[in-house]
Amino acid sequence: MIAAPEIPTDFNLLQESETHFSSDTDFEDIEGKNQKQGKGKTCKKGKKGPAEKGKGGNGGGKPPSGPNRMNGHHQQNGVENMMLFEVVKMGKSAMQSVVDDWIESYKHDRDIALLDLINFFIQCSGCKGVVTAEMFRHMQNSEIIRKMTEEFDEDSGDYPLTMAGPQWKKFKSSFCEFIGVLVRQCQYSIIYDEYMMDTVISLLTGL
Question: Model's pTM, two decimal places?
Fold first, then answer.
């Protein structure tokens, strides 16, 4: 009889290892299939953290409060890039609110706020020109007035405070209210600010 060949011990160990690995692999495959089949059924959408809620604007929250002025422009009631003259002319905002916004703007950057106020008076006088920030910083009042004189409509003697019609009648009323509220709100603080008074009065005197 031919003796059966002896199987090396290393070979038996190798077979057991392969069988073990194959079983583990099959188990992992089954688990993977179960996860794929159950995908989207058991997972719940997690809540957004504070950082994620801040994405995409205000996350459906309230818009930022407070005045919003940029380069002497005003934003209120959804109207952007509107100068003080236009805000008063439209008369859609309470003058108390307009003045409060201007005062906050002055506290934040007095040059920008004063530039807006100066342009308000210049446009009320019928001038179509606009004093720029560059002019305000580098030109004397006499030079600014001379430049603005070139923008007047010499063919017409009318200007917003003297024009007839319902729109301008309302504007005159809003103008008086604005000045009254401005003086009242500033009488104990900003109105005694030498910078503001010197700048505005000297320009108005020259006009």
Answer: 0.58
